[in-house]
Fold:
Amino acid sequence: MTALPETIEVVDPVPGAAAPHLPPERGSDTVQLLTPEGDRVEHPDYSLDITDEELRALYRDLVLVRRWDAEATALQRQGELGIWASLLGQEAAQIGAGRAMAEGDMAFPTYREHGVAWARGVDPLHVMSLFRGVDNGGWDPVATGFSLYTIVIGSQCLHATGYAMGVQRDGAEQAVLAFLGDGATSQGEVNEAMIWAASFSAPVVFFCQNNQYAISVPLERQSRVPLYQRAAGFGFPGVRVDGNDVLAVLAVTRAALQAAREGQGPTFIEAFTYRMGAHTTSDDPTRYRLAGELEEWKLRDPIARLKAHLSRSGAADAQFFDAVEAEADELAVGIRRGTVEMPDPAPTEMFDHVYAEQTPHLAAQRDEFVAYRASFEGER
Amino acid sequence: MTETLTIGKALNLGLRRAMEDDAKVVLMGEDIGRLGGVFRITDGLQKDFGEARVVDTPLAEAGILGTAVGLAMRGYRPVCEIQFDGFVFPAYNQIVTQVAKMHARSKGRVAMPIVIRIPMGGGIGAVEHHSESPEAYFAHTAGLKVVAVSNPVDAYWGIQQAIAHPDPVVFLEPKRRYWEKAEVDVDATPDPLFGSRVVRGGDDVTVLAYGPMVKTALQAAEAAAEEGRSLEVIDLRTVAPLDLDPVVESVRRTGRCVVVHEAPTSLGLGAEIAARVTETCFHSLEAPVLRVGGYDTPYPPSKLEEEYLPDLDRVLDAVDRSMGF
Structure:
């Protein structure tokens, strides 16, 4: 057995790991249709015909989910939520992807996809109930086309692939959108999902929001090549898109979903973005990243660039922006009220859905639990 | 020298001392380096020991345990942190099929001196997968040793003893008790790692607990004393191997035994303990061994966790039932 040397030299195995996580330069292989300054640009492979009304609708989505997110963070600080995983900075990636989906498509989210939930028509309070500790998500995954949040990193990618295999067997013209983060690409299950998807040419699109950090661990520890290039090794296309450009995300995701529906198999989309907040409200990012990095990314804000474009092109006026702000405030008030007034679950609820067919043992344990609680009546 | 330490700080100092004592100790886990771990148990260690000895790993639990097997074969002593109990399962294959069996497979030629640190249990108001008690899965697997500390003294010494031990040790840390303090004599001679300990003497009922439930059992004993009942509380400290000698001695005196754990009651540690106590103390028992545990449901959303977790009242309820036989 080899002994360890007396003194170990610290060799950073990832040269440049401390470099700011800035987006690739323009003109690189990153799809962009709207610059950070709000200018529309063309891309040879991805075009987007979009009306002013649709542009305004996207802007409204972005503003509303950011307002929801801010309200949720505040509610957590005030003790009304146990924890909150903020999407701040990732609104365009999520709205672009969510709005690219067609009605029969199915999404498999992580735990941060509030913007996609919004786009799928999930009631925000059904998301809030999870973070309040009332349930594990109150929405109907089938009715909404939006699976329940998955907290264990990467597990949902296999579910999405299996669901897509079902779609394939049904002969349906539907596609599946699997959400994951940069950290998840290191998980064995995610790699297995991509192998399965490729082997069976399943109609699934892997939508990776590369927000540069897995809690504190930077991208360089997960991959030494740009993530979208991983797809080639699995045998399907990989595309990198400016994740803060809602138009590019919409165009790229729409095309990938359509290709999947048409039987062309999976695509891996790397939406290059930045988690502007903490990992969750329990996290303190000042311990592991530089403030300057955040400042750089603020210049690439996903909402500001669309607002600039709408103003400059005349597609929206001050009255429109004011109306959206007012609607956002109204939404926040409703979310706050609904959250604060949300009733606690019935204590027996934990016994009620463990099995489709209740077991005699658990039914008896439930009865004992009820009797035990009743023994305190008058005391509590 | 005596210091007042929280369980979290005791673990931190214990890890530091183990790393100073043995240059082959390597810490591996998600966010354990620059961040110092989500519970800050490894705070400052990467700064002082470098990135080769405190490794911020990719986000891949099977990778953490699988590479630990290789590092152990190469003569290192990996100390793996699993961020939360519910995240251990991607690594479960490596733990059960490789870590646990390598020594037997190699006829003793290859040791697996790996420590798997897992913050365990509920009571912190968390979302799904952050509050589980998976000890029975590991205790049921031959080849693994499973320790569940309850206090800063055992945290400080136990982590060092586990690291120095030649077999793989699943080291369960009572996460909701991380901030509890006690005096730790860092020059003392520690108790053996795999031994249970009477932490409160009594005559009427023997109450067994480990990890986060030891405090609950002690609170129950305090409350019972006010009603004139004398509970003997034993901190099992290790759940594989079980050290039941002090338990047998106690139950032969009291004739009654209650086992408390957060994990679901059915097929939990309590079941094994009940069987063994019945076998060894059958003629002394005045009542069947009773179990107080979580219900046989998934760990519930946090609004219901106080209903799910055993508390002082549920321990006393079991004591009442035991006395009623």
Notes: DSSP finds 14 helices and eight strands in chain A. The longest strand of chain A covers residues 204-210. Residues 52-77 of chain A form the longest helix (26 residues).
